[in-house]
Amino acid sequence: MGDDKASAFDDAFEEAERDEYESVSIDRAKHTRSYLEDLVSEDEEIASFTVAEIIEHLNRCL
Predict the structure, then answer these.
(1) What is the CA radius of gyration of the chain?
(2) Phi/psi at 36 (nearest 5 deg)?
(3) Considering the entire predicted model, what is its pTM?
């Protein structure tokens, strides 16, 4: 990921916080990372999915 994308992701992740406690955002990051790693370990093609595609998948699951 390029520096601009990484910075944009970090900014968006911080702005999306729903709770003022730092541990909540860290826990969210850990759970999200674990979920994505599990998905990719099951099917490497998932690594090429866009964020929009992952959101679409999550919407179908809810």
Answers:
(1) 13
(2) -65, -40
(3) 0.55
Cα 27 from Cα 33, distance rounded (Å): 10
DSSP string, 19-50: SS-HHHHHHHHHHHHHHHHHHHHH-GGGGG--
Q: Taking CA 47 as the corner, what is the angle to CA 46 and CA 53, rounded to the nearest 5 degrees?
A: 55
Q: Residue 19 pLDDT more than 60? A: no
The tokens describing 6, both together, are 């990484």
Q: Are 25 and 17 contacting, i.e. CB atoms less than 8 angstroms apart?
A: yes
